Amino acid sequence: MRLSVTIGAADGVFDGDRARVRQQPTSLGTLIARAMMDRTGADLALMNAGGVRDSLPAGPITYRDVLKVQPFANAVGVVTLTGAELLDYLGAAAMMTPGAGGFAQTAGVQMRIEAGRLLEARVAGQPIDAQRRYRLSINNFTAIGGDGYPKLNTHPNYVDSGFNDAEVLRGYIARHSPLKVADYAPGDAVQRR
Fold it and tell me: 70-88: per-residue pLDDT in tens?
């Protein structure tokens, strides 16, 4: 695929600025996580902010733009967890210090965090049921414990999708363009105190 070929378009900038993406949920973090959910059929997705390296421009988007955002060729994986396991994992995500590469960008989940503690988490608007099973999409960097996340690559229900993150994002942009930034506003995805 030629890097300069237009793959889609956006009505505004998808914010991946390092200072913001490691401090707060952003439209680009939501877009990446939704693309991961879409490709793997997951209920929710988590992307480490350290893996987001640039913004996506307003107007035409090329594959080169996507590779500037996700240059590491990480594989996208999915793991089926019990609600109890998922709450433990999200609790670890909640402890990630704003400003750090481990800061979580998410989709499909709403979290209330206070002083680094997860107080509440919902998937599809419902409280997480400890007995139910949920499909979480993450990249292989976080799956192997990168940025201080608990290892999930050794979990018996972990599956590597075989797709790299930039390719997943490229495909999502191509299928959903033109993208509207407002549709990916994080809203109340994470409330911190």
Answer: 999 999 999 999 999 999 9
In this predicted structure, what is the pLDDT of residue 191?
A: 67
What is the pLDDT, as a whole number, of residue 76?
98
- Type of residue at 10: A
From 177, 188, 193, select the one nearest 10 (Cα to Cα): 177
Give me the DSSP letters along 49-99. GGG--SPBPSEEEEHHHHHHHS-S-PEEEEEEEEHHHHHHHHHHHHTSPTT
C-alpha–C-alpha distance, residues 66 and 49, integer Å: 15
- Retrieve residue 24's tokens: 């707060």
In this structure, what DSSP letter does residue 175 have?
Answer: H
Q: Is the pLDDT of residue 190 over 70?
A: no
> Which H or E element spans position 33?
helix 27-40
Identify whether the C-beta of residue 36 lies closer than 8 Å to the C-beta of residue 42: yes
* Contact assessment for residue 83 and residue 132, using Cβ atoms and an 8 Å cutoff: yes
As a whole number of angstroms, the distance between CA 171 and CA 173 comes to: 5
Yes or no: say if 49 and 142 are a contact pair by the CB < 8 Å rule.
Answer: no
Per-residue pLDDT at 192 exceeds 80: no
Residue count (the chain)? 193
